[in-house]
Amino acid sequence: MSSPFSRIVVEYRGVQEALRDLEDYVVFTVEPPWSSVKGLLTHPPIETVMVEEVDRETLDANTSRVTHAGTAVGLGGGRAVDAAKYFALKTGCRFVSVPTILAADAYLTPKAGVRIDGVVNYIGDKFADEIVVDQKIIRGAPKRLNRAAIGDIYSARISLLDWRRARDEAGEEYDPAVAAKAEEVLSRLMALAPEIKEVTAGAIRPLVEMHMTLNSLQFPYLQRGKFWPQEGTEHLFFYTLEKLVGRPFVHGDVISTGAVVATYLHGADPEKTKDDLRSFGVDFTAGAVGITYDEFEKTIRSMKRVGKEAGAEYLVVERGAPTESDVREMWRLVSQ
Ligand SMILES: [Zn+2]
Hints:
The protein has 2 domains: 4-139, Rossmann fold (3-Layer(aba) Sandwich), CATH 3.40.50.1970; 143-333, Dehydroquinate synthase-like, alpha domain (Up-down Bundle). It is of the alpha/beta class and 336 residues long. α7 packs parallel to α12, α11 (233-245) packs across α12 and α12 runs antiparallel to α13. The model has no long low-confidence stretch (mean pLDDT 95). The strands form 2 sheets. A 6-stranded parallel β-sheet has the order 1-8-5-4-2-3, covered by helices on one side. A two-stranded antiparallel ribbon has the order 6-7. Helix content is 52%, strand content 11%. Bound molecules: zinc ion. Zinc ion binds next to α12.
């Protein structure tokens, strides 16, 4: 099945070369990396928007202020890319995504995280026309922010647990061929753990390819409001936490925390999840991510409601009711 992902051009080359032929382009970016990247560009953008906030008012103000641009370039992490994505969505211009960290797969998804009345909503669709992967720039970022790329890949393991439960308990349609492809990605991910941990030159391209493969596999299911085989209960944990506390997080780190929680809820093996995550050097602990016990407990208790509000089905959350001791045990698991 052809998906819009197959039409995205992914360029594994330097920004200088990749952006050389752009004429009237506007850059949405953050600091870092803008000051170290802008000198590489052969000609400057017609406008540079430093993205502080991704609330709808600010993004709409950008759209009215920048009157003409043929291409919106999002250069940075999730916020910069989402601001460019939103601008391109509203104005219909081209959209070029230049991720400078891989902590989330937002650089290739069609949804932009936009804060509306204080709460992040994911709106879209705007697919990138082109993604520029400048491996040198990406590898220049703190390692932690690229190790976090595994969050949106390891999530497939949880998604498959969710999907099989939905098949067994709710008669949900299940495609073994799609599941097998997701399993292949997971095997590739685990085999690359030493490279990913060190963020070597051999790690970047496979991470991008794995994000792309899983998003392509997920696409037909997303059309029907399902998330398999890429996202699952760990993402519900993330979205719920984000809604409740309103602070920005490193996506892949919290997704990893959520993966530990989700494997516990599934009655699977959370210790294995922790070992897997540690092999990438990802610190999934509540202390590293920066969440308190109260926030954690509230998140666990609110996942069912948030899932329902989003119209999504997460059977393991819907049909379960974690006891006080379950919450304590999950907190213990994510505390060390
Ligand atoms: Zn994600």
